[in-house]
Amino acid sequence: MFMEERLDEILEIMKDEKKVLVKDLSEKFNVSESMIRKDLQRLEKEGKIKRTYGGAILERESSYDEKTTSRVFVDLESKSRLGELVLDIIEENDVIFLDISTTNHTIANMLNYTKKNLTVITNMNRIAMEFDRTPNIDVILIGGHYNKKLGGIVGSEAVEQIKKFKITKAFVGAGGINVEENFISNFNYDEASVKSEVLKSSKKRYIVANYEKLYKDGPYKFATLEDIDYIVVEKEPENDVKKALLNFEVEVIY
């Protein structure tokens, strides 16, 4: 196997497993450990990985400010799984907050089939519209500045309104969850301010995000791991991630 082929395969392994050990790669490719270390050095110089003692981890990606509507039909399988998990969490007479998130939009759609009596507070107009024909669900739509790109209400006026509510459970999306540096981030400043206030105003606080967000970061921090109670992901995280979250007393639901 040529070196370039080996480098490509190492990256594919890391995309699946998020980390590798020099010893394991040496055995897999039947080359010396010093050769593998050179491979990892090259990948690190290219900004693709970060070397650790005895191995390497995948370099964290950046989340970008994409238009919300462009993400509605992306990762539908993982969103449906997240929706199933959240529906099991929601209880009769809960007052829940669903913020601007295509995953939360999926959750709202799935809630149409529940018989539970609920109050849904949201700053995303598409979520509010999901309940036009659902008599058992009361809807409160936060008012203020409408951001067309996000598809929802953000800004200081929205933050002030949220302070008036006593929320039972908040389900908040995230652009990134960094357990190593202890912050949760997003890619829009005004939206991040809303997310922060939603968490402050809630009795139980859930970050709902697909698995990949555990390895991405957004430019705006809106919370630390101490600010939340649960993380909901569609599949089991790596052991080191689970251990780190346990240290912050954050329960993982998957």
Set down the secondary structure blueprint.
Elements: H1 3-17, E1 19-21, H2 22-29, H3 33-45, E2 49-52, E3 55-58, E4 61-62, H4 76-89, E5 95-98, H5 102-111, E6 118-122, H6 125-129, E7 137-141, E8 145-147, E9 152-154, H7 156-162, E10 167-172, E11 176-178, E12 183-186, H8 189-200, E13 202-208, E14 216-217, E15 220-223, E16 230-232, H9 239-247, E17 251-253
Parallel strand pairs: 4-14, 5-6, 5-10, 6-7, 10-13, 13-16, 16-17
Antiparallel strand pairs: 1-3, 2-3, 8-9, 11-12, 12-15
Brief sketch in words of this structure:
This protein is α/β, with parallel strands linked by helices and 254 residues long. Helix content is 37%, strand content 26%.
Outline the structure in words:
By secondary structure, the protein is α/β, with parallel strands linked by helices. The chain has 9 helices and 17 strands. It has helices at residues 3-17, 22-29, 33-45, 76-89, 102-111, 125-129, 156-162, 189-200, 239-247; strands spanning 19-21, 49-52, 55-58, 61-62, 95-98, 118-122, 137-141, 145-147, 152-154, 167-172, 176-178, 183-186, 202-208, 216-217, 220-223, 230-232, 251-253. The protein has a 7-stranded parallel sheet with strand order 7-6-5-10-13-16-17, sandwiched between helices. α9 (239-247) links the parallel β16 and β17. α2 crosses α3, α4 (76-89) packs across α5 and α7 packs parallel to α8. The radius of gyration is 20 Å and the shape is elongated. The mean pLDDT is 92.
